[in-house]
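[step 3/7] inverse_fold.run input=structure_tokens len=132
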């Protein structure tokens, strides 16, 4: 079930599998820090409402580079809420944009290694299978 869509992201929730999915669009190359924050806070709202166990991030078209400042903001304002609301595993469909992918990996690995199980996939089926 699709629960949110903007120019940058679509968020859906599968209640049977308890998976919340973010699909980022290539227009993220034009995303500002403020838009990133707004989109992430919107996502956090849905996590609080639906309390999923699993998170699938389709980052194949994610072209926004998460700066150190935004990594810190995410670590302070997003990941604690995910953990508090029951997310146990996060899977990524990896981006072809290496700089964006590296910033995603760095943001997650620095502060969340003990909180979530995180794996990267190039197949959506493999990512969902691992979550389930």
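[step 3/7] decode complete -> sequence:
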């Amino acid at each position: 079930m699709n629960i949110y869509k903007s120019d940058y992201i679509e968020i859906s929730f599968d209640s049977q599998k308890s998976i919340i999915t973010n699909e980022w669009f290539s227009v993220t190359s034009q995303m500002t820090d403020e838009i990133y924050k707004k989109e992430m806070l919107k996502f956090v709202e849905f996590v609080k409402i639906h309390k999923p166990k699993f998170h699938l991030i389709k980052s194949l078209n994610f072209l926004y580079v998460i700066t150190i400042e935004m990594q810190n903001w995410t670590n302070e304002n997003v990941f604690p809420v995910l953990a508090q609301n029951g997310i146990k595993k996060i899977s990524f469909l990896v981006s072809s944009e290496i700089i964006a992918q590296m910033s995603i990996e760095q943001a997650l690995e620095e502060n969340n290694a003990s909180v979530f199980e995180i794996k990267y996939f190039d197949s959506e089926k493999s990512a969902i299978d691992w979550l389930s």
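[step 4/7] annotate
The longest helix spans residues 33-50.
The longest strand covers residues 9-14.
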